[in-house]
User: Which sequence fits this backbone?
């Protein structure tokens, strides 16, 4: 039983040392890989958290708002209300 535990301990130590050796042998690719993984995870998390929060108006909505603002300076309030009824 002790021999089995020792063998497991050695295998665990090798499993821990192998990635450390790889990083020491290839520091730049390892750093770029971790940067890419961090960037990817960050993008996915931000998409998951803010997917419906920052909805941007469509081009039609923007145009409608501009026309409404321009007409609000020219039309009377009753005519502007009538215009709103047609566009909504």
Assistant:
């Amino acid at each position: 039983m002790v021999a089995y535990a020792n063998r497991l301990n050695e295998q665990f130590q090798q499993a821990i040392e192998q990635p450390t050796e790889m990083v020491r042998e290839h520091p730049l690719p390892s750093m770029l890989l971790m940067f890419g993984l961090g960037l990817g995870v960050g993008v996915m998390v931000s998409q998951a958290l803010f997917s419906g929060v920052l909805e941007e108006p469509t081009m039609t909505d923007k145009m409608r708002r501009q026309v409404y603002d321009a007409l609000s300076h020219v039309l009377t309030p009753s005519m502007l209300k009538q215009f709103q009824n047609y566009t909504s």
In short: The mean pLDDT is 86. Residues 56-88 form one domain. The longest helix spans residues 2-25.
